[in-house]
Amino acid sequence: MAKGDIMRITVTLALLALSCGSAAMAKDAPAESSALRGLARCKAIGDSAARLACFDQEAATLLAAEQRSDIVIVAREQVERNRRAMFGFNMPDVGVLRDHGGKVETLDQVEGVLAEASADASGQWVFTLRDGSVWEQTDMNPQTWSPRAGDPVLIKRAGLGGFRLSVAKAPGVRVRRVR
User: Fold this and answer.
1) Which spans in 19-174 are helix H?
2) Residue 13 has pLDDT above 50, yes or no
3) CA-CA 20 to 30 A from 42: which of 11, 54, 72, 169?
């Protein structure tokens, strides 16, 4: 990987990490860091050797801040894994889920695999996925199908903040995430 690519990745990850400083700050304005301002200042230097020296110095400052946990650098793939793991929970707005335009990125659906499913005494289903998430049926619609471990599951956002779970392409049921 070229030195410029490493620097671009470092700056991108630092910007992403800084955006999660606090929920209140993320809602109002993007977080700023002197380390990032320093990197931006370096970019404007015309002389190649001076620009490289500036980048080296500012990268060291950024890495030291990360070592002290003054900033946390999070890879986008980790953010995506966390977003998927939190799908179905009502979470506070933390800046790390925002794109550069300030829009909150949300998932509309997730796919998974059924680990187990059981119906309680009233006929309401409880679905446990292989990823450990647990979903309870919230509607009163009786189901004629019998889900089995290993069946593919699709959970989509539904109206009014709810979710709809379909197992093996059977008609879906309204659910809420409990774990």
Assistant:
1) 23-28, 34-43, 48-67, 76-85
2) no
3) 72
Determine which of 95-99, 134-138, 163-167 has the lowest per-residue pLDDT on average: 95-99
pLDDT in the model for residue 104:
58
Tokens of 123: 């006929």
154 strand-pairing partners: 111, 166
Q: Which of 6, 33, 31 is nearest to 19 (CA)?
A: 31
Of 56-65, 78-87, 155-164, the least confident: 78-87
Q: Is 167 helix (H, G, I), strand (E, B) or coil?
A: strand
- Parallel/antiparallel/unpaired status of strands 109-119 and 163-167: unpaired
Looking at the chain, the number of H-run helices and the number of E-run strands are 5, 6
Give the C-alpha distances (Å, rounded to integers) separating 47 from 42, 50, 53, 176. 10, 5, 10, 58
Using CA atoms, how far residue 41 sits from 36, 140, 177, in Å, is: 9, 61, 46
Beta-carbon neighbour count of residue 72 at 10 Å? Answer: 15
Give the closest residue to 71 by CA, choosing from 15, 126, 154: 15
Q: Please state at what angle helix 48-67 crosses helix 34-43, rounded to 10 degrees.
A: 170
At 21, the pLDDT band (50, 70, 90 cuts) reads: very low
Contact call for residues 19 and 95 (beta carbons, < 8 A): yes
